[in-house]
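Standup notes, protein team

Yesterday: finished cleaning the Photinus pyralis set.
Today: Heparan sulfate 2-O-sulfotransferase pipe structure.
Blockers: none.

Input for Heparan sulfate 2-O-sulfotransferase pipe:
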Amino acid sequence: MLTVRSTIIIQFPKKTLWRTSELIALMAISTTLFLFIHTRDLSSKLKEMEVKMQPEDMVSANQISSGDSGPASYDMKAMMKMLQGTGGVTSLNPYELNNTRNAQQDVIFFNRVPKVGSQTFMELLRRLSIRNEFGFHQDRVQRVETIRLPPEDQLRLAALVSGYESPSVYIKHVCFTNFSEFGLPEPIYVNLVRDPVERVISWYYYIRAPWYYVERKLAFPDIPLPDPKWLKKDFETCVLSNDRECKYLKGETREGIGDHRRQSMFFCGHSEECTPFNTEGALQRAKMAVEKHYAVVGVLEDLNTTMTVLENYVPKFFKGASEIYWEEISRYNTINRNTFKPQVDEKVKDIVRQNFTKEIEFYEFCKQRLHKQLYALKLQKP
Ligand SMILES: *[C@@H]1O[C@H](CO)[C@@H](O)[C@H](O)[C@H]1NC(C)=O
Ligand SMILES: *[C@@H]1O[C@H](CO)[C@@H](O)[C@H](O)[C@H]1NC(C)=O
Ligand SMILES: *[C@@H]1O[C@H](CO)[C@@H](O)[C@H](O)[C@H]1NC(C)=O
Ligand SMILES: *[C@@H]1O[C@H](CO)[C@@H](O)[C@H](O)[C@H]1NC(C)=O
């Protein structure tokens, strides 16, 4: 299996990439260790989106626990009120909200989003794979990871995943890939989202944490060490001084520093329409993919609900998830905490939020859907 996976990686047009003047310019201008880079693939006329990933895509325990609110703290009245605005409570039926039953293969496709606690989630899945007896596969860590693929690579990926012995789980940083489009059996799509502004801040400090660039430097010695001035720049100053790195402009497709803005892109797919920041078209596509395909999109700030919904809607893989999470994994989260992340003023967050309207709408959409799924279970089991 490993060799098959490397083949796919080799297929990525890395050679073309390293030659692009854009990349060279970006590397020269900035010492940022994370870049979205775009280039033009002449043969396919598709823009490729490249993203540098790092092995330790971890999340802090603080970030998980601070916003955590599970069934214990659940306010039914508030929930009913919220759901009434989204199509009413009477239509809530676990069967109708269950995309797992549409899957045509017992393989989970988890296209994890960076900085959404997926390292923790991967550990959960790894442990569950032993307990519930399924295969565990993840994409190899790469220096530059392509998240937006041309159709031929989407097909190759879908074929690779469909080739795994079921039941299995496959994990990769990649945009939503529509298996049915290629005539391949529908997998069980699972993912997680997080408050989009918190996520951007988390990313901002993550790439500035000493262990991040030291480890990258060890893995890829030719990467230049970052400029100390850049390292010291805090998020608030970055936003308030109109720094390019912290400008979030509607419709912008610039792939550059800190372009970790578009969580929704991981759900929208590989289409060109998915690339402009904070646009209605990309938002609608992302929502549609979630509604049609995803079995569960969990919410990092609400892990208890996420676990309960996963356990009930994808039981074959997730039974016992809450227990493993709380008893075995949550303890280790402190190890991964980014102590270099300072508090960010709410006022600054609000400034950023004003430009993240579609991203916030997408996040709220996923949250409501998750709660609908939970509420449907409660209606079923009084
Ligand atoms: C989530 O569930 C765990 C285990 O059942 C519990 O200890 C914790 O208090 C819950 N958290 C919240 C915020 O409800
Ligand atoms: C938000 O968008 C407005 C309008 O496009 C722009 O002027 C402003 O600089 C942006 N602010 C941030 C923090 O990105
Ligand atoms: C995925 O592909 C199938 C088959 O072509 C199509 O019916 C479906 O609408 C696609 N899903 C999305 C979200 O585009
Ligand atoms: C959802 O569908 C899966 C697969 O058919 C099934 O195992 C699971 O029990 C269902 N969950 C709910 C809540 O209907």
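Follow-up from PR in the comments: The mean pLDDT is 77.
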